[in-house]
Amino acid sequence: MEANWDDMRVFLAVARAESLSGAGKTLKMDPATVGRRIQRLEEAFGTPLFVKSPQGYALTNEGERLLPRAEQAEQAMTLAVEETSGQTGTLNGVVRIGAPDGCANFLLPQVCARMREKHPGLELQIIAQPRVVNLTRREADMAIAVSAPDTGRLTVQKITDYRLHLAASRRYLRRHDPIETMDDLQKHRMIGYIPDMIFDKELDYLAASGNDQLGISSNSVSVQLNLLRQAAGVGIVHDFALPFVVKVDKILTDQFSLTRSFYLLRHADDRKVERLSRVAAELADGIKREVAHLEGLT
Questions:
Q1: Most CB contacts within 10 A, which of 2, 41, 259, 277?
Q2: What is residue 209's three-state secondary structure?
Q3: Are 97 and 127 in contact (CB under 8 A)?
Q4: Are 254 and 240 in contact (CB under 8 A)?
């Protein structure tokens, strides 16, 4: 019995999802069929490729050795499809983009809408998550991150800097003690990230403000912004998000400001895929322009 590409596709899906059910959703197969395909592949190689347990499917040593070869085969098939279907030079098909929710909510809708208008054959999928999307497991084709990773077979491109400031609603400022200096913040409760759910040190904004007295916290930038609208406290806000809310103003701008950066992450093997490279270039340029536009409004 010989292994074929379709079996390798099933192997990759299980390796990335670490379960038959997760792989089945990706492949649009029922889990029992996925299990039979894995069994057939293991019989073809004459060795177990996964360790099965109640927690899921984990690669064996033999499976770990097969993984990069399977990814190379996947890459070759992607290139072959593009070349033979006439996609080279065009932007068609599905591209999945992972991003932290601040970027996903306040930047990507405008950027992706313009890209879709320019390229009608392109289908863009946005994954908004309060963590870094795992490109190694192919959760997405590319991802936006707030820091540059130093591990993994990834290409990293800095997109742009963005700025954050302290902010509060006008209603909150009318009803509470005045905030004229950084020391005045000690009299106020802050809105920010749930401390044990901060997935990147670059998001630990409250540490920089000197006041970590949380009143209400959330792992979502959008929720934090809506809490500010409800006069629930003082927060640290992306300048590019402020144009989307009314009656929430920056405060102490001459005393406090943070600068952070967005990075575009891609799997190293995807550099040869012209379609993905062009999408990545347009995405990065669009985000850079949108940040500059929105920050100019605040």
A1: 41
A2: helix
A3: yes
A4: no
Strand partners, 58: 51
Burial of residue 173 (CB within 10 Å: 0-12, 13-18, 19+) is middle
**Quick one: tokens of 52?**
């099965």
Q: Residue 59 CB: number of other CB atoms within 10 A?
A: 18
CB–CB of 267/198 below 8 Å? no
- 8 Å CB contact between 31 and 21: yes
Q: Got the DSSP string for 62-118?
A: HHHHHHHHHHHHHHHHHHHHHHHTT-TTS--EEEEEEE-HHHHHHTHHHHHHHHHHH
pTM for this prediction: 0.75
Interior angle at CA 264, CA 103 and CA 98, nearest 5: 50
Q: Which residues pair with 266 in a beta bridge?
A: 142, 155
Residue 66 CA to residue 11 CA, distance in Å, equals 9
Rounded to 5 degrees, φ, ψ at 261 are -135, 155
Distance CA 42, CA 151 (A): 30
Indicate the pLDDT class of residue 89, thresholds 50, 70 and 90.
Answer: low
Does pLDDT of 277 surpass 60? Answer: yes
